What we know:
Elements: H1 5-20, H2 22-28, H3 33-41, H4 60-71, H5 75-91, H6 96-103, E1 111-114, E2 120-124, E3 127-137, E4 145-150, E5 163-168, E6 173-175, E7 189-199, E8 203-205, H7 206-210, H8 225-228, H9 230-252, H10 264-294, H11 299-327, H12 337-349, H13 356-366
Parallel strand pairs: 1-4
Antiparallel strand pairs: 2-3, 3-7, 4-5, 5-8, 6-7
Helix pairs in contact: 1-3, 1-4, 4-5, 4-9, 5-9, 9-10, 9-11, 9-12, 10-11, 11-12, 11-13
Amino acid sequence: MSLSPEIEAATSQVAKLAGAQAAQADAERRVSPDVIRAVVDAGFARWLVPSRWGGDERGYTELTAAVAKVGEECSSTAWLACLAAHAARYVACLPEQGQADIWGDGPDTLVAAVIKPQGTAVETEGGFRLTGSWSYVSGVEHADWALLTGPAPGPKSGGQPMRLFAVPRADYSFEDTWSSLGMRGTGSHTLVLDDVFVPEHRVCLREDAMRGATVGLPGRAPLPNPAVSGLTFVTPVLGAARGALAVATQLVAVAPTGPRAGAGQAYQVDFARAAGEIDAAQLLIERAAAVVDGGALTPALARRNRRDLALALQMLADATDRLLRIGGTRAQEDGHPLQRHWRDVRSVASHAVMQFEPAGADYTQGLAGPA
């Protein structure tokens, strides 16, 4: 994956700044405002914003390369940069006036999106009243807007379909609830709303957003969520795994002594396998991004993308496990970059929607065609 010289320079600047503060972000459970400003200045928020709103409307292949580069230094920053870019896919599914509310003053708006349905929504004249709490909202502290999915399924939903609601920063608060094993710097706290009015023009059906039904972009082929969303999870992890590999490279370059001497060859084999797994995962990720950039996604390609990205994530997690083993006890100490990379990878790999089994079953069942 290669970057244009302009994006290469901007991304390198973000990576350098984020890397210098990575340990601090991990300890404080937040990426600093100056790193967030660097992310915005580098163009991540405007990356996928339509040109009609002043956005760059760039491709996913280059985005994947940029996010992974940042992830080598700080995967929490890479995660936030990736989500900042991908949120535009959902904003573009809102009615035109809703898009104007968010992008009317410029395409660099930071939007935090929550796809899991939570909270309650009461239909009222001209819109809805939204109440509740939404957990794991990455970057909520820095966001200008939030896209929230509701209502939560169950008897309190009143049989309503799930919708996406766009809410400005002034209308919500957040509770400091993020204390995780990995991806600590993402600040994925709980967002809280108390009877907030959301006008109709800031609302769309979740089903429409999941199938990529954009508004005001005639001729654009829909991008179904299962074919694309895996990139938001696995791309920062690719960077983290490559960062772990760089640390492990320094470890295997020195002949082991003492008790480690007897395991020297085993460490070399582990390193070689991990390096190969990371390379193979990157090839799968690059192919998936190229498929998205190619447009006209068929159901078969969408299922293959979902399979490939789940498999790539599993491979990256296995590779990072091997690299942590090379580091031994010292790599597990607080502050060691290898254990931080490992925690970040394992945190993402545990996410329910990225497990390989359902993705694999969906792929195989799809070979038979519609029931």
